[in-house]
Amino acid sequence: MAEANGGSTTEHPGELELLRSQIDELDREIVKLLNRRARLGMDAGRVKARGGLPVGDADREREVLVRVAMANDGPLPQDALLALYRQLIETIKRLEELQAPGSPPS
After folding, report:
1. Can you give the pLDDT at residue 11?
2. How far apart are CA 13 and CA 78, in angstroms?
3. pTM of the full predicted structure?
């Protein structure tokens, strides 16, 4: 099968397998980090609930997005990275809303 650069996957199978293996390992690390991020967000949600604060905090969300944008040195386009983070924030907010007030930490 031809690749976009005109080569074929059979010309460098060892190199391709190594790259795929590294991608697979990195994906596992990313999943662990995303779940760690979600747990921390849920912990923050419990603290907010105890203090009577709303789940959403537009100022904090903007701050997170600005920090993410500042940390991005590519090659991911800024708009794509920020879209991923917006989705992450929305997902964690839904998790915060679903957890019962005063529920034990996960």
Report:
1. 72
2. 32
3. 0.78
